[in-house]
Design brief:
- By secondary structure, this protein is mainly beta.
- It folds into 3 domains: 112 residues, Sandwich (Immunoglobulin-like); 94 residues, Immunoglobulin-like (Sandwich); 78 residues, Immunoglobulins (Immunoglobulin-like, Sandwich), CATH 2.60.40.10.
- The chain is 13% helix and 45% strand.
- It contains 2 helices and 25 strands.
- The protein has a 6-stranded mixed beta sheet, with no helix packed on it. The chain has a 4-stranded antiparallel beta sheet with strand order 12-13-16-15, with no helix packed on it. The chain has a 3-stranded antiparallel beta sheet with strand order 3-9-8, with no helix packed on it.
- A hairpin with a 6-residue loop joins strand 5 and strand 6.
- The protein is rod-shaped, with a radius of gyration of 45 Å.
- Pfam families: C2-set_2 (PF08205), Ig_3 (PF13927), V-set (PF07686).
- Keywords: Cell adhesion, Disulfide bond, Glycoprotein, Membrane, Repeat, Signal, Transmembrane, Transmembrane helix.
- Its main location: membrane.
Length: 354
């Protein structure tokens, strides 16, 4: 009885020693995060065993393949076989001698995110496996748009900065220093079915003339990429203010006003038909090609943009024959005065007596 008990104790002890020195294989690997569009490496190898590897296989459960499905099998002689498509993106970078079953997966997308299980078929011995999670990181698409705030006394959104479709969610912040007015920000996040998030942040303030042309910055922070800084010059829009008509050195008349965006200038004649052959309008300036009584009348310039309009008026009055007759008579009169003066001088000096 004692003899059999000793044999059993010896056998158990031998098996324990054998298991710690020859058996107890394990598979090692680690979770990995990859930026969308780049290449990821799925590391997996079996250690602590002298058994031979007869086959390496991979299974996956991803966004694109929501059910457990075969992905890859690798045999010592026939090599890599990719199942269910995508073979051009998969590369076996391990080897059987090192008991390394690592894969390289290129052009990674969100559809590749999920659980990958590598398994080693050992001989002699059982199959050993390891589960790895592939996390796909998506950089945001950043943009900054002008909300076209109109001059006023109430708070509105001046500009909107967006970090679209990122994973994990991006953070959007503003740098505006000590600008006039009490500027604030408002942000919200929109979750999409594919796991990405769009973060939208608005810069809010009262649209005043003091804010016009002030520089601010939107900063997008994401784990998927370096911080992005988007500069923006605040634009405050307003309709045309008071219109002034001014004569220019070339004789044309300009229609001047302050407005944003720059207004369109349109000239019309209020009290008659437009004298096509006698006037021109270029770059918003009205110029008369002749000056006669037929052009007499009231002319109006209208300055307008999408936010409003203002107008100014110019009254034109020319006397008949103003340009030719008046200047001719004035020239003759000057000539007569000059001749009479010369004759008087000669008579007084006695130079004509001889």
């Amino acid at each position: 009885m004692c003899f059999y008990r000793n044999i059993i104790i010896f056998a158990v002890g031998f098996l324990i020693i054998l298991g710690t020195t020859v058996g107890a294989p394990s598979v090692v690997g680690r979770d990995v995060s990859v930026i969308q569009g780049e290449t990821g490496v799925l590391l997996c190898n079996v250690i602590d065993t002298n058994y031979n590897v007869s086959q390496i296989s991979w299974e996956r459960r991803t966004r694109g393949q929501p059910q457990d499905s075969e992905f890859v099998t690798i045999m010592p002689k026939s090599g890599l076989k990719v199942i269910n498509g995508g073979g051009d993106r998969v590369k076996f970078i391990g080897n059987f001698d090192d008991k390394n079953g690592s894969l390289e997966l290129s052009g990674i997308t969100l559809m590749d995110e999920g659980i990958y299980t590598c398994a080693f078929s050992l001989f002699p011995g059982a199959t050993q496996q390891k589960t790895i999670f592939l996390n796909v990181v998506v950089p945001p698409v950043s943009s900054l748009v002008d909300n076209h705030p109109v001059l006023g006394d109430k708070e509105v959104s001046l500009a909107t900065c967006t970090a679209a479709g990122s994973k994990p969610p991006a953070t959007v912040s503003w740098l505006f220093g000590n600008l006039p007015g009490n500027l604030t920000t408002f942000s919200n996040a929109i979750e999409h079915q594919n796991g990405t998030v769009t973060t939208v942040s608005s810069l809010v303030g009262v649209p005043s003339r003091e804010l016009d042309q002030q520089l601010v910055q939107c900063v997008v922070t994401s784990k998927a990429t370096k911080d992005q800084t988007l500069p923006f010059t605040i634009q405050i829009y307003f309709p045309p203010s008071e219109v002034n008509i001014n004569e220019q050195p070339d004789g044309s008349f300009s229609c001047d006003t302050a407005a944003k965006p720059m207004p369109e200038i349109v000239w019309t004649r209020i009290d008659g038909s437009w004298p096509e052959s006698s006037v021109t309008v270029k770059d918003g300036r009205l110029k008369f090609l002749t000056m006669d009584a037929s052009l007499n009348g009231l002319y109006q310039c209208e300055a307008s943009n999408e936010y409003g309009s203002k107008y100014g008026r110019l009254y034109v009055h020319n006397k008949a024959g103003h340009c030719t007759v008046c200047w001719t008579l004035f020239g003759l009169l000057i000539s007569i005065i000059v001749v009479a003066g010369v004759i008087r001088f000669l008579c007084t000096s006695g130079k004509l007596n001889g």
